[in-house]
Amino acid sequence: MRLPSWISQHLAALRALLVFTVLLGLAYPLLLVAAGRLPGLSGRADGSLLHVNGTVVGSRLIGQSFTDADGNPDPRYFQSRPSAAGDGYDPTATSASNLGPESVVDTLSGNPGDASPSLLTQVCARSLAVGRLEGVDGSRPYCTADGVGAVLAVFHRDGFAGPVTRVVSVNQTSTPFLAGYAGVTVEPAKIGEDYQALGGVITPIRGTAPAHPAVPADAVTAGASGLDPHISPQYAALQIPRIARERALTEDRVRTLIKQHTDDRALGLLGEPAVNTLELNLALDRT
Amino acid sequence: MAGWIFPGTLVLALVVVYRPFGDYLYRAIAGTADARAERVLYRLVGVDPKAQQTWGVYARSVLAFSVLSVLFLYILLRVQDKLWLSLGLPPVTDHVAWNTAVSFVSNTNWQAYSGESTMGHLAQMAGLAVQNFVSASVGIAVAVALIRGFAARKAPGQARNPATPATLGNFWVDLTRITLRILVPVSVLFALVFMAGGVVQNLSGGTDATTLTGATQHLTGGPVASQEVIKLLGTNGGGFYNTNSAHPYENPATWTNWLQVFLILLIPFSLPRVFGRMAGQNRQGYAIVAVMAVLAIASTALTVGFELHGGGTVPQAAGAAMEGKDVRFGVPGSATFAAATTLTSTGAVNSFHDSYTSLGGMMPMVNMMLGEVAPGGTGSGLYGLLVLAIITVFVAGLMVGRTPEYLGKKIGAQEMKLASSYFLVTPALVLTGTATAFATGHNSTALNTGPHALSEVLYAFTSAANNNGSAFGGITVNTPWWDTALGLAMLLGRFLPIVLVLALAGALAEQQPAPETEGTMPTHQPLFVGMVVGVTVVLVALTFLPALALGPIAEALA
User: Fold this and answer.
1) How far apart are CA B363 and CA A140, in angstroms?
2) What is the mean pLDDT of residues B226-233?
3) In this structure, what are the phi and psi dihedrals at residue A157, rounded to the nearest 5 degrees?
């Protein structure tokens, strides 16, 4: 019996799909899983796990939070970057923040669960916290002294033009970071008001902070994977005095350890030098 | 300065491999002998490898294979809990399963789900990774069929004779050869290299680690390396994990990152060599790859430049555009990846475009709006660019009053209708999709507000309709409306153009080539390269500038 061609075509398609599923979906990956059992490859194929006294303490490739149960930094350890993966460095919920470059207005709320800070305020708050922990100046451009985004909603008489009639500091509910703007007294924000919808022009204020803040960029931004195993050499250097103090080591000894756990540019050319925090902290625990 | 070494060395490497790898592709596809394994496979499938297909039969074979692939993948995802290696995960919900099935079959690999919390290992291996291979092969096969249409030489007097219809090869043979001779060997090789770099490859459900401060961290496992390679080589882009190529288990080091970008660009940039060789004139291949290179280099330079400059309030406050970027890649290694993944139809990400500077984040969108032709997806980039070359020939012919011809084939009314329809498919899907989302209020799932929210919606439809699959993130798309709408955009954005291209190939194959005369416009010289670039940029600008002006451009100017 000859099948109509539209049926025979589908039969061929079905058979092709099944054959390819067996070849590419089973044989190919399982062959590579078997190759991953070879000595020399197996440690990496299993996730580059690190052991201390027989217990798995993490992976060389996956960052960790070095914080106590309440989320406060443990001062004996080098701190990782901020992370957007779950509660921080959770490999079962990897994520980035996905907040945009002009995310500058906080959603304020009396209930902390409903409030959502803008990316700018997150950057400012982290900078202040890192500065306090390391004993350096945590100020940054576009940040207030109390660690939120320095952003005004400026109302003009004719919408976008004309004299300024009203100015609100949109991320602050108490004393604004500026007393006056364009001759108008700056008001604090009221919870629940959307000043942009009311016609205010969102205006970030640069302020007087140095162009190169003491706290480096990677310390105040969340990475891509939420599992970034590295920090920049600058952020590592910032943490040296604290680590030396807490561990009763000389700063030179800590500096040497950092050097030993820095992944240099590949072939001396590609990418950025980066310090592996987990390996560095394990080395600290061993000294 | 150091930042420019990363893209610079990539350009060098691609120049070096163009001829040898392109020739390897040509021999694999155009050879006359079947290997024994292939003959066994043809017998299992029940097809005659010697049979030649007309464009209609070729198209029906592509569609039949793809329809069954969608069904098979949908069912696999819906019953994954009853099969092995599901890791205890529940079946994928119906709208996500539909969206994912279409997404992987159409070579889009848009992900409305988070890998580590949705897909078991079997669904990843036997479902998603299989489509990574075959959807890439389908794209290359269609491109090869179009080249055969150009290269076909009908006997005198037989042109457009219905008794002897022109043929374009055999889809099953193309599918098999491209998969077994090209994709599998390269994948095995580079999977081993990636494993040596730290990409995981196991069937474990994960390991619990006790961190230095006493917390528990669940380190995930999975057959990642085998899927990682084909995700890049086949310009698919669907990550094993939610954060895709940013995840250290997918992309552990700086040099693996370089290799990932290289693999993304390898096949799309080498296919013009196949075009040149099959058309019998290598210089035609050089002209096409030159168009791709001009657009790609310009776009990559702009993306890296915008990100290194770090404009905008938050990047200025932070001191660098490091939000959503990992330290080991840095700004140049992230921005180059972003350019490569959107210039092709890959859509894998190693950094999060939503947090890019306004103009840096616009570049990936512009790249996709170019129609992904520089160099585009595996196969789809080449056929997309050949359609644009046809449009250019036509425009140039109108300007100087010559009969438009490309490779000796006349570009007549029928060819132009097919080429124009091809070009209109994606803009129609992107712009009506975005407008529909706003008109029905479904834009409300965007995380950001103002122009940035328009960018998020526009990016989602651009990515789906162009079969890219990268996401601006920041928009919740696993709702029934979004899954359905984007699924339709992906399906139509893939298969309408494929049918139009095959019809075009059929029309070209029916023609007897016209002899080259003094009046023939040369299509291998810099002038023509410049004209194709110009026509591409003008067409895209006319189509998308109004939408871009309301999104990223408005944001950058604010």
Assistant:
1) 28
2) 97
3) -60, -40
Per the structure block, which two tokens stand in for B332? 């140049």
Asked whether B445 and B477 are in contact (CB, 8 A), the reply is yes
B187–A contact, CB cutoff 8 A: yes
Do A280 and A239 form a contact (C-beta atoms < 8 A)? no
In the three-class reduction of DSSP (H, G, I as helix; E, B as strand; rest coil), residue B162 is classed as coil
Residue B410 β-bridge partners: B405
Smallest CA-to-CA distance from B354 within A229, A180, A84 is with A84
Q: Are A140 and A215 in contact (CB under 8 A)?
A: yes
Name the phi and psi angles at A240, rounded to 5.
-60, -50
Distance in Å from the first CA to the final CA of chain B: 30
B260 half-sphere exposure, CB direction, 13 A CA radius: 37
Q: What is the pTM of this model?
A: 0.96
Chain B residues closer than 8 Å to A202 by CB:
558
**Distance, CA of B271 to CA of A170 (rounded, Å):** 54
Chain B, window 452-481: residues with a beta carbon less than 8 angstroms from a chain A beta carbon: 452, 472-474
Q: Which phi and psi (to 5°) does residue B105 adopt?
A: -70, -35
**What pLDDT digit, counting tens, does each position of B173-185 carry?**
999 999 999 999 9
CA distance B495 to A180: 60
Rounded CA separation A175/A172 (Å)? 7
Query: Smallest CA–CA separation between B467 and chain A, in Å?
Result: 21
pLDDT (tens digit per residue) in B210-220: 999 999 999 99
The single residue listed with the structure tokens 């917390």 is B215
**B136 vs A115: which has the higher pLDDT:** B136
The three-class DSSP label of residue B283 is helix
Indicate whether this complex's ipTM tops 0.90.
yes
**Closest-CA residue to B409 (of B528, B521, B511, B516):** B511
pLDDT digits (tens, 9 = 90+) for B33-91: 999 999 999 999 999 999 999 999 999 999 999 999 999 999 999 999 999 899 999 99
Tell me the residue length of chain A: 287
- Counting Cα atoms < 13 Å in the Cβ hemisphere of B438 gives 17
Sheet holding A180-181, edge to edge: A180-181, A184-188, A161-169, A151-158, A201-204
Q: What gap in Å lies between CA A31 and CA A76, rounded to an integer?
A: 44
B386: its two tokens: 């050949």
| Residues A106, B152: Cα–Cα separation, whole Å | 63
Q: Which pLDDT value is given to residue B153?
A: 87
Length of chain B: 558
**Higher-scoring residue by pLDDT: A21, A110:** A21
Residues of A in contact with B255 (CB under 8 A): 266-267, 270-271
